[in-house]
Amino acid sequence: MGADDLKEKMAAAELRPSMSYSDYLQLDKVLTAQAPISASPDELLFIIQHQTSELWMKLAISELRGAMQAVAADELRPAFKKLTRVARIFEQLNNAWDVLRTMTPSEYTSFRAVLGQSSGFQSWQYRAIEFLAGNRNAAMLKQYADQPDRVRILEAILVRPSLYDEALLLLARNGFDIGEEAYRTDWSRKREPSAAVQVAWKAVYVEPDKYWGLYELAEKLVDFEDYFRRWRFNHVTTVERIIGMKRGTGGTSGVSYLRKMLDVELFPELWHLRTEL
């Protein structure tokens, strides 16, 4: 938003006779967005849990985009701030599972049938976060075939470097040999761990004082993935606690699928190098 746009918005706000807390936050829209279908009082918890998670994800996407732009421009201090915020967002998302885990299997069963085929697996914002971070799988776009607007958003992410790609390009700009990663043009494909990249990151960790900016960036990435992994673990634990080994409403294998996701690494070389230090 430019300075002129901001001035116009501020001027428009001053012209309003009174802006209440409710008006500013559009609470009439927010608080009427919950529409339970069943008679179960526990369905409201389920809806609010997922709606608030999507709001936090919206903020995470905004902060990740900002961090990527900052890294690409060699402006690391703003990137550190934004990545710290993303990690704290996932801390909030983790805490939300504690509330959902108060729901028993009997309570969930009382309204599960009304969910139909809806599932958190279908969250396009979650997919956007994965794509932005660097876990890319274009095949996942198939599930949004009936949502062309969502597909366009996700495709736009896939044609540009991810957060981790930007970090690797930063290594290259600082004189590190990252092998073939320096010449990539197809950003949509899932990358594999690189020995050259691991050597480069190891050099940063061996001499942190010399490469402090890169070292701090690496730790911010690890911090983000740490909270992201905890979120995934809490997800699978919560699902198993509530539905056991039943299939998910969206057609996935449920807990079995979520357990496989625990092995996915966003920034593999940053984890693997620790064994060598």
The CATH class designation is Mainly Alpha
Low-confidence stretches: none
Structural class determined from secondary elements: mainly alpha
How many H/I helical runs?
Answer: 13
Straight-line distance between termini: 45 Å
Report the count of strand segments. Answer: 0
Instruction: Give the integer mean of the pLDDT values.
Output: 91
Question: Oligomeric form of this entry?
Answer: single chain
- Find the CATH topology: Methane Monooxygenase Hydroxylase, Chain G, domain 1
CATH architecture: Up-down Bundle
* N to C succession of SSEs: HHHHHHHHHHHHH
**Tell me about the biggest sheet?**
none
Name the helicity range: 55-70%
- The portion of residues forming beta strands comes to under 5%
Name the shape in a single word: globular
In angstroms, what is the radius of gyration? 21 Å
Question: In words, what does this structure look like?
Answer:
It is a single chain. The chain has 277 residues and is mainly α. It has a single domain (40-167, 189-275), classed as Up-down Bundle (Methane Monooxygenase Hydroxylase, Chain G, domain 1), CATH 1.20.58.480. It is built from 13 helices and no strands. The protein has helices at 3-15, 21-25, 27-31, 42-72, 76-100, 105-109, 124-133, 148-158, 163-173, 195-206, 212-243, 255-261, 268-272. α4 (42-72) runs parallel beside α7 and α4 runs parallel beside α9 (163-173). The longest helix has 32 residues, at 212-243. The model has no long low-confidence stretch (mean pLDDT 91).
